[in-house]
Amino acid sequence: MPEFVEFTKQKRTVVQGEALHLWESDADLFLEEFLPLEGWGNYSQEMCVCGEEAAIYRCQDCHGTELFCHLCMVRVHERQPFHKMEHWDSISFHSITSKSMGIRLQLGHTSGVCCNNPLSAFNDDFVIIDYNGIYEVGLDFCRCTSAQPHITQLLCVRLFPATTVDPKTAATFRSLKYFQMLSFESKVSAYEFYKTAARLTDNTGIHVPKDRYESMLRMMQEWRFIKQMQRAGQGHHPEGITATEQGACAVLCPACPHAGKNLPDGWENAPSEIRFIYALFLAIDTNFRLARHNVSSDTVDPGLNHGYAFFVEEKAYKCFISSQARAVQEMSSCSSHNVVNLADARVSRGLAATGAGTIDCVRHNFKWPCSIGDLQKGEQYLNMDYLFLSSMQSSSDIMALNISYNIACQWSKHIWTHMSAFPHQYHIKHHEKSIVFLVLKFHLPAHITKCQTSFSFNFIKGVGRTDGEAPERGWADINPIATSTRKMGPGSRHDTLDDHFCYSQVRPYSFSLTLHLYYVASRMMPPLDLSFFLDYSLYYIMTAILPSLDDLFLVSLTHLIYDSF
């Protein structure tokens, strides 16, 4: 038999420097092609393709370099009002608006249907913010007998109104989504995004678009809130947004134990030797980069989240802190921890908040619902007690807790005594639970010898190689946004940070691959029950793809995805 020789296709790789040298030899060609595009380009016909009028209009956003007459330009852009159109004045091209071309956006009807009773926007002055520019448009509402409210007409065509009464400004859904994702990934500020759109509209400074920056800020805050409620399923609740419970919009850690979600029946009766499997690992930490300057107020900028995600409900939090203002911070009996001894002395001049405290999942770096709050001075026990007890409301059924804190040796002394001053709903039955207090491994050497043995992860059964430093690693992603949030009002800052925390907890896990595999499998083996696929196939798939993850994490993730359907 002849021998078969396997040939493998060699992948051609081009070094970055080599590719740049190759391009440099053709740089003149690029320049030669750029110059004609400032004028007519390669288009040589003086008449429009329709043969009726001269071709003196072009669009920078449409594909190609063709020129059109006025009528053809209007026909092409009746459904593309946010394109950059230009007019040839026999010397050069200059920008024109769709409104000056006579294009009107008719709301309340399908495209191409004339309204018998149109109503122009207030003073016929309407501005739309898109991701590539700011446009003055001619916009007509429908006021037929069956017409919807004006804001509904705008939303139906994916325009987000800046106000609910006589709106004069709107933003496209895509621009708000684009900025939201851009802020997640690059931490760009709303001011930088808006100025970019304004410069893309006119970069000469001669025809500056109308200032709608304040409207942009308000629309973005409302957009974040609506999308958060949509993801949390509140749009399907009979009572709507008003029925939202505390922490309901927070993204839960899929691997941590959640009673009724990812724990087997009878887990609470597990033998003591394996009970550590169902233990919850939490870490307490603060971040002083998330400070906020003393600008605005709760009255001017109240915010839209009222404890629905990660930040605690602000009014109740501040009221409790104020009621305990005379509480004295106990001095440290361990090393001279500045966190403890100087908690009341931290510089707070000009600041409404010196930072933020948080409760995190130690092993997977997830923020816990209703666990973040502003610090009025330093890292006071009072603040951290409130945040810890607030976060435990969503995990009150868990029987084993491993709690790490860089000053756990001091904080844990009186936590249960302090709890008696809190409202009853914040109390936890600590006598019925197995609770271990620990100090983060990196911080432990700064403690005295006694603490280094009593609060060490290395001497506790069932904690594996956990180091407790997850919150410190998590701040690396959120710290860049601090330059934008430090001068925000209280409500805007909380809503923005809630949105960023939510995204940071969704980003590591994508269900797209799972759904794609289900789609392929269902086509090959119809009919395939989704629950069967998730229960018996997902664990194997995830194990093959992510072999480094522990079994409990994979089982928990399987149940979480199954729950989402």
Measured between the Cα atoms of the first and last residue, the distance is: 55 Å
Output mean pLDDT: 85
Strand count, sense and barrel status of the largest sheet are:
6 strands, mixed
Unreliable parts = 528-565
- Molecular shape: elongated
Strand segment count:
16
Helix content percent band = 25-40%
Q: What proportion strand? A: 5-15%
- The count of helical stretches stands at 20
Radius of gyration computed on alpha carbons: 30 Å
Characterise this structure:
The chain is an alpha/beta fold and 565 residues long. It has helices at 16-24, 27-37, 70-77, 150-156, 173-186, 190-201, 213-231, 314-323, 338-341, 381-391, 408-411, 415-419, 449-454, 470-478, 482-485, 490-506, 512-524, 530-536, 538-545, 551-564, and strands at residues 57-59, 85-88, 93-96, 104-106, 118-120, 126-130, 133-142, 159-161, 169-172, 280-287, 292-293, 351-353, 355-361, 373-375, 400-405, 434-438. The strands form 4 sheets. Strands 4, 5, 6, 7, 8 and 9 form a 6-stranded mixed beta sheet that branches. A hairpin with a 2-residue loop joins strand 6 (126-130) and strand 7 (133-142). The longest helix is centred in the middle third of the chain and has 19 residues, at 213-231. It is elongated and about 90 Å long. The chain starts with 15 loop residues before the first helix and ends with a helix. Mean pLDDT is 85; it is low at 528-565.
